[in-house]
Amino acid sequence: ESGGWTASDVDRYTSGRSALHAAAHTGSLANVRYLIETVGCDPDAHSIARSDYGKTAIFFAAVRCRGDVVEYLLDACPRLRVNVVNGAGQSVRSLCASHDIPERVR
Fold first, then answer.
1. Model pTM?
2. Hey, which residues does 106 pair with through a beta bridge?
3. 3 state SS of 85
């Protein structure tokens, strides 16, 4: 039950980040699941915050070593764009490798 919230309600950007970005960044797997499965937020939506360089939820999770969130996103979102490079020239794969996230991402 989403309580009547829609993805567009939740994904209204505050400082360029969505609720899904915040949940992935803080490692709140329960909130990430809720936002994707119940609300329907787009896991490939990118942040428009100036200092975020176009990061998606999986970028935020990888940068903060949130392996469980990375694993969930990979399992729940089979079409997730993991080969995308952000504005700083980093890929999800390179971030996972440098932050000791599970091998399957690399």
1. 0.80
2. none
3. strand
